[in-house]
Design brief:
It holds the Pfam family p450. The protein is α+β, with helices and mostly antiparallel strands. It is built from 17 helices and ten strands. The chain has one domain: Orthogonal Bundle (Cytochrome p450), CATH 1.10.630. Helix content is 47%, strand content 11%.
């Protein structure tokens, strides 16, 4: 593990967290974000920060598998809201391409960029690529996430998790998100990258700025975001140069350097794949770690089941991933005209796959708005995607979550929500920015 920090990016000491920057912009100008006019335009972030998205998607699912949104700040698109429709689309990657991008953010034309006075800023990444390029780049990092590699990490993950849990205060309210969820996932990322340990919180800082789609709608924040991500690229480039002339090592940066599929990446592509690995490795696990606590507090009968029967933990992890759905959507682009569940989708139209809706699909999951850690088909959730783009780090995320619950159970630790709960204002990352808790024992 590298122990010495490198030259820290200037904005690390001056820039606020992404969520704080967005809040400040909205305080100064409540109209800073564009207005959403269509009833079923679920790209609006207020329904997620206020946790009132469930009935909107339920209404859409009852009306059909997909619905066209013509007027949206993110451009026209189809909302794909059912489990079967999302699986169908993900199973046809040639017909429904990922190469146009994965979030609801619209790729603007050169004319539109000129009109807005903005420069093109694109970060290619392998999740936003089609075969064969996607295959080669994914295979580069995949060995880090094989069952054998994951098994080798378990002892260290368990040690770090246990040590952190042993430091948590008793009879005192603290923020679970920052103290536990962020610390554990950021530490895991630092290990995967062999990232300088004193600077590990940079990974969270970058993840939040990279994963917040709302920021791109406010010109000043989008420019700031681009600067922060360029500084991220510069920092990682120091690590790249440091390791380029060394023998291959098992960290992700070294694996990229020594891969024919990735060692000729442009700076933008390098940055894009870093964003993918950081957001994928950070937000998914981090928000599920917080979602576990919130869901157990909301459904105390399920917490009691967990406390009485630790053999339920593996299935509980799948159910929490379904219930929380840490990344709300992914996007695809139709490469030709197609008939899709009674709708005609034209070539060039964008389809937003709402995993957050599919995981509450009543035709698949009985009583979907209820946490049930004994749910027999919990593993059918789509929180990791489906098909060739299924999350490459899914097994590692599951391991981290399992170890957390096992170590909590070993310590007979019961965590109560005891104060403020603040959710992320975003339509892509679905999670918590703050959760005040208190620990007791069972």
């Amino acid at each position: 593990m590298a122990t010495q920090p490198l030259e820290a990016p200037a904005q690390w000491t001056t820039a606020p967290r992404a969520v704080d920057a967005l809040d400040q912009a909205l305080r100064e100008n409540p109209q800073a974000l564009p207005h959403h006019t269509e009833k079923w335009d679920v790209s609006r972030s207020d329904i997620y920060v206020e946790d009132r998205w469930q009935p909107i998607f339920k209404e859409m699912r009852a009306a059909g598998d997909l619905h066209k949104v013509n007027e949206s700040p993110f451009g026209p698109h189809w909302n794909v809201v059912t489990h079967r429709a999302i699986q169908h689309i993900e199973a046809l990657p040639e017909l429904y391409s990922s190469a146009d991008g994965i979030t609801i953010l619209e790729a603007l034309s050169d004319e539109k960029l000129a009109e807005l006075g903005r420069e093109r800023f694109e970060l290619p990444m392998f999740i936003a690529m089609d075969r064969p390029k996607h295959t080669g780049q994914r295979r580069t990092v995949a060995p880090k996430f094989t069952p054998s590699s994951i098994a080798e990490m378990e002892a260290e993950i368990r040690q770090r998790t246990g040590e952190l849990l042993d430091t948590l205060p008793r009879n005192k309210v603290f923020d679970w998100v920052d103290t536990v969820s962020i610390e554990l996932t950021t530490g895991m990322l630092a290990i995967l990258f062999d990232f300088p340990w004193p600077d590990r919180r940079l990974l969270t800082f970058w993840s939040d700025w990279a994963g917040d789609t709302e920021i791109a709608l406010i010109r000043e924040l989008d420019i700031q975001r681009q600067g922060i991500l360029r500084e991220m690229g510069a920092y990682f480039m120091q690590l790249w140069q440091e390791r380029a002339n060394k023998p291959p090592q098992p960290d992700l940066i070294s694996m990229m350097i020594h891969s024919p599929a990735m060692n000729q990446m442009s700076p933008e592509e390098f940055m894009g794949n870093l964003v993918l690995l950081i957001v994928g490795g950070n937000d998914t696990t981090r928000n599920t770690m917080s979602g576990i606590i919130h869901a157990f507090d909301k459904f105390p009968d399920q917490r009691k089941l967990f406390e009485n029967d630790p053999s339920l933990i593996p299935n509980a992890i799948q159910e929490i991933l379904r219930y929380q759905t840490p990344l709300a959507h992914m996007r695809r682009l139709a490469t030709e005209d197609s008939e899709l569940f009674g709708q005609t989708v034209k070539k060039g139209e964008r389809l937003v796959l709402w995993y957050i809706s599919a995981n509450r699909d009543e035709t698949v999951f009985e009583n979907p708005d209820v946490l049930d850690i004994r749910r027999e088909n919990a593993r059918r959730h789509l929180s990791f995607g489906y098909g060739i783009h299924r999350c490459v780090g899914a097994r590692l995320a599951e391991l981290q979550l399992r170890v957390l619950l096992e170590e909590m159970h070993k310590r007979r630790m019961r965590v109560h929500v005891a104060g403020d709960v603040e959710r992320v204002r975003a339509n892509f990352v679905h999670g918590f920015r703050k959760m005040e808790v208190e620990i007791t024992e069972f």
